[in-house]
Design a protein that fits this description.
Number of helices: 14
Radius of gyration: 27 Å
Structural class: alpha/beta
Strand order of the largest sheet: 7-6-5-8-9-10
Order of helices and strands: EHHEEHEHHHHEHEHEHEHEEHHEEH
Helix content: 40-55%
Oligomer: single chain
Number of strands: 12
Length: about 400
């Protein structure tokens, strides 16, 4: 019985194909159960994110059946073959360790995927879809993530414009944004992203200035902040500690003299200006003023490039850890005494295939049904003979 992974990701598949397979967290157990039954898998974990859909499982053989597994997820005959990859044994383990560590993500070293992998495993485990091999594989993956985060710098340094803006701002304010006021001028998507990052790091108040009062009020409501009329933005800047500008204006919006006028009212409080507009919104000469810190989009992207380069240098160390842990895991799995294989319909936690309470697993159409108050497994190719007799009322 081999462990395997079959899947597709942003590297192999356009979004219009990935979205056909998207599985919400609430449906992971139902879809995993379907895969186990129809795919004749003894264990299975289904991972679905915006960038990948992957099936981790245990089976005596998998090649030639991968396409069928993905068609089961969509209830279609769509041809996923050109987009699919399959790995077995140590290669499957190395793939999971890399995915869980963020090494296979769009943003190298990102951490959100680690939580998504843990959630997928927990959902499968709670539904009785995992056994000794999947449990060991995913528990080892969690250990590998911790080892990589501890012993390498793969996750250090911000790699998005929004997170870099936070990083640079925290340096000015000694990493404490808890009493700071953030102001956004304009409503560009990147500007909103910057403010979201700042708000997550504890910024106290958010002010929104926009030519459209309605748009300003809507955005302010998202952050629990306050809308400001564009003509009142200069006065509001006396309150702000951090200003993010993203207006889309064809020329300079904030000139040196505009900022210079409000400095006395600020009483030497530092002012961080983040200009992510192209063309630029803020006069570069503003940076010459005392206690004013100006960062434009080139400054932010330069930091992103440098941090990404530093992360890439850590890849070889990460891969050494992954290769070693994968070899160690496979050695343990291969030396473990084999156990009698569980039947594919025995994933019910109660261990009974004859009566399977739907509330314990799912109400997935074509897998479970109710007639005359009785629950049973529907008849399909993997159905044991006894189920058909129960269903037909024969002995």
């Amino acid at each position: 019985m081999k462990i395997f992974v079959a899947g597709l990701s942003y590297k192999t598949t356009p979004v219009e194909v990935r979205e056909k397979l998207a599985v919400s967290r609430a449906r992971l157990q139902c879809c995993g159960c379907r895969l186990k039954l129809r795919g004749n898998l003894s264990e299975v974990v289904l991972l679905s994110t915006c960038n990948r859909v992957e099936i981790y499982g245990v089976s005596p053989w998998i090649h030639g059946r991968v396409q069928q597994l993905f068609q089961e997820l969509t209830n279609t005959d769509f041809d996923f073959t050109p987009h699919l990859y399959v790995k077995e044994g140590a290669e499957a383990a190395k793939h999971l360790f890399a995915v869980a560590s963020g090494l296979d993500s769009m943003v190298l070293g990102e951490t959100e995927i680690t939580g998504q992998v843990k959630n997928a495993y927990q959902a499968a485990k709670d539904a009785g879809l995992t056994g000794k091999k999947m449990n060991r594989l995913f528990q080892t993956a969690c250990q590998v993530v911790k080892q990589i985060r501890t012993n390498t710098a793969i996750g250090r340094g911000a790699t998005s414009v929004g997170s870099v803006a936070v990083e640079l701002t925290e340096k000015v304010f000694d990493r404490d944004l808890s009493d700071k006021t953030v102001m956004i001028v304009g409503a560009g998507k990147m500007g909103e992203a910057c403010v979201k990052h700042l708000a997550k790091r504890g910024a106290k108040t958010v002010l929104v200035a926009n030519r459209s009062v309605e748009r300003a009020e809507k955005l302010a409501a998202e952050f629990g902040g306050r809308a400001v009329r564009i003509e009142d933005s200069a006065a509001a800047m006396t309150e702000a500690d951090i200003l993010v500008s993203s207006t889309g204006s064809p020329g300079i919006v904030l000139r040196r003299e505009d900022i210079e006028k409000i400095l006395p009212a600020r009483r030497n409080r530092p002012l961080v200006l983040v200009d992510i507009a192209v063309p630029r919104d803020i006069d570069p000469a503003v940076a010459e003023l005392p206690n004013v810190f100006l960062y434009d989009i080139d400054d932010l992207e330069a930091v992103v490039r440098e941090n990404t380069k530093n992360r890439e240098h850590e890849l070889s160390f990460c891969n050494e850890i992954i290769a070693g842990r994968a070899a160690e895991l496979m050695s343990k799995l291969e030396s473990s005494p084999g156990k009698k294989r569980r039947k594919p319909w025995s994933c019910c936690p109660a261990g009974s295939w004859a009566v399977w309470p739907p509330e314990r697993i799912c109400h997935e159409q074509n897998i479970f049904n109710e007639e005359s108050g009785a629950e049973y497994v529907l008849g399909f190719s993997l159905e044991p003979p006894g189920v058909r007799r129960l269903r037909d009322g024969t002995n």
